[in-house]
Design brief:
The chain is an alpha+beta fold and about 375 residues long. The protein contains eleven helices and 17 strands. It has helices spanning about 1-5, 15-25, 45-55, 65-75, 80-90, 95, 100-110, 140-145, 165-180, 240-260, 310-325; strands at about 80, 125-130, 155-160, 180-185, 185, 195, 200-205, 215-220, 225-230, 265-270, 285, 295, 300-305, 340-345, 350, 355, 360-365.
């Protein structure tokens, strides 16, 4: 493209050329990524054909030696090198030669993700195709990670409720989260290997290198729900606001920027963290009345309300406490020595559509008063 531009009467600078390519990428007339600028895809149908080879690859299941790998692909979405070789070797030479570039582009479009973890000691990290995952979590996710059943170790559920949830939206969110966080692993009993915890409707991410805090992401027909599992110190108020903000920002970006789905909307709700994922409905609103505890109809008991997702109540409770502290900070202070404060009165009169203001006067008010008086006639 640089050579073509240099042959024109007024060549484009490198910055102008990149802007030109990004503009046409947004128009979907070509495919260009600045960090993959080695190639520019002018025929978008060619790229669609390459994608279709991977996502609908059942017809290529011809190699008897790789039956286990193919089964993993169709059930768990695990796309290892043996399967990729079977797919691309049966395609045109140009697809096979540009296999790595195609995989990088697929990763950009969230069709595949790359956890950078292997399940076996002698196995290389491989790709996963979220839309191909059919395997459900075979046991209780809390038992799998041995999470204690109390509100100190399970945050409240943060629910993003949709009137209609497009099926692909969850896959794009999982791809976004996998770029920011590492997908968690768990040991398989009686086997010397680890399993990456990505299932059809459940994914677990590591939030810390110490692995003492994990993010549980689940999906139900019309909601995406997240919860933090704590293995260290107890959960604190407002602690996970940055996680909530990131998930909300990514959902907004996917809905409005990438796919322009103006009719897809969601609202944020919360629910008791001891509710099992399959029974979470998100019945509680954020904000509203001030509260420090609530009665849970699922647990049939009262819980302390931490508000760890929004932190809205943290600020208001802090201000309330500061106000109380100020009132009791010096009970022996002689109030008679305080200077009198003044309030301003503005008298207004309305006659025949005209408005007139009298002079502003100042009068002493009671000591300690925080509000003025405004009187109108």
């Amino acid at each position: 493209m640089k050579n073509i531009s240099s042959d024109t009467p007024k060549p484009l600078t490198e910055e102008e050329l990149i802007l030109f390519l990004e503009f046409h990428h947004e128009l979907r007339s070509l495919v260009f990524f600045k960090d993959l600028s080695e190639y520019i895809i002018l025929d978008t149908q060619w790229l669609s054909d390459a994608f279709r080879c991977v996502v609908t690859a059942k017809k290529f299941r011809i190699n008897i030696r790789n039956q286990k790998e193919w089964n993993d692909f169709f059930q768990r979405g695990k796309l290892n090198n043996a399967v990729l070789e079977d797919i691309f070797k049966n395609e045109t030479t140009i697809l096979y030669e540009h296999k790595e570039f195609i995989l990088n582009i697929m990763e950009k479009f969230d069709i595949i993700i790359h956890p950078n973890k292997s399940e076996g000691a002698d196995e290389k990290p491989c790709y996963y195709v979220p839309c191909m995952i059919k395997e459900d979590c075979q046991c209780d996710i809390y038992q799998m990670f041995k999470v204690q059943g109390d509100t100190r170790h399970r945050s409240t559920w943060l629910c993003f409720k949709f009137r209609f949830l497009p099926p692909h939206l969850k896959n794009h969110l999982i791809a976004s989260l996998s770029r920011k966080y590492t997908i968690a692993q768990v040991g398989i009993s009686n086997q010397k290997k680890m399993q990456i915890t990505i299932f059809r409707d459940i994914v677990v991410f590591e939030l810390q290198k110490t692995k003492l805090r994990k993010l549980l992401v689940t999906k139900c027909p019309n909601a995406i729900q997240i919860q933090v599992l704590e293995f260290g110190k107890g959960i604190e108020r407002g602690l996970f606001k940055d996680i909530a903000d990131f998930v909300e920002m990514e959902l907004e970006k996917i809905i409005h920027t990438r796919f322009n789905m103006s009719n897809v909307k969601f609202e944020k709700k919360w629910e008791c963290g001891l509710t099992k994922p399959e029974f979470v409905t998100g019945i509680n609103d954020f904000g509203g009345e001030q509260m420090t505890e609530y009665y849970c109809e699922t647990c049939i008991k009262t819980h302390k309300f931490m508000d760890e997702w929004s932190g809205l109540q943290t600020k208001s409770l802090c201000l309330l406490q500061c106000s109380k502290d100020a009132q009791h900070s010096d009970p022996h202070l002689d109030t008679s020595s305080k200077k009198p404060t003044f309030s301003k009165k503005i008298r207004c009169s309305f006659q025949a559509g005209m408005q007139a203001f009298s002079d502003v006067t100042e009068e002493p008010t009671r000591t300690g008063s925080l509000t003025g008086v405004c009187r109108s006639k």
